[in-house]
Specification:
Elements: H1 5-43, H2 48-59, H3 64-78, H4 94-108, H5 112-134, H6 139-173
Length: about 170
């Protein structure tokens, strides 16, 4: 049985409709990826590296569900729950925070984060020993701990003053 011209036309139109639907689905998928990436870029300050990771992740997505999952993964990784709604401008990706820290380290001439990180162990060790001393009833065990506390006290106070001065310098600038 031979196809009639109308049947050939119907088949051609069906094929064209199929291709248009396929193209529409592709555009919907790309539009969804663009929407989620735009949303993340508007919600968070990101480093160039973080933006590249986002683009690569969305490019590798196979379907709409993966795109939404990637959005939620990035959002969870970047979102700082300690900030309230008024602090939306301070939602920073880890890479952006690191770039900011490096910027201040270069522009201010010292690295504030490293300074705090270097001083915290002294303070932590001092208070941990003080707590241990408080919970130790035996006098023979308490004596060496007390001597260690007294010898470490000046260093701990210096470390604490450094951290307090860093915090106060930020309060003075604001």
């Amino acid at each position: 049985m031979q196809e009639t011209p109308d049947q050939r036309k119907i088949k051609a139109l069906e094929l064209e409709l199929f291709n248009i639907k396929k193209e529409r689905d592709g555009l919907t998928f790309v539009n969804q990826a663009l929407g989620y990436s735009t949303r993340l870029l508007s919600e968070f300050h990101m480093s160039l590296d973080d933006k590249s990771k986002l683009a690569d992740a969305l490019d590798s997505a196979k379907d709409s569900g993966e795109i939404k999952d990637m959005y939620e993964k990035f959002n969870a990784a970047f979102f700082n729950k300690a900030l309230n709604e008024e602090s939306a401008d301070f939602q920073w990706s880890p890479g952006f925070k690191e770039n900011l820290r490096q910027y201040f380290a270069v522009s201010l001439g010292y690295d504030i984060i490293s300074e705090i990180r270097d001083n915290l162990p002294l303070i932590t060790a001092y208070f941990a020993l003080e707590n241990k001393l408080f919970n130790t009833p035996e006098g023979a065990l308490r004596k060496p701990m007390t001597e260690k506390l007294l010898s470490d006290r000046e260093g701990m106070l210096i470390s604490m003053d450094k951290i307090i001065n860093i915090i106060n310098s930020f309060n003075e600038d604001s």
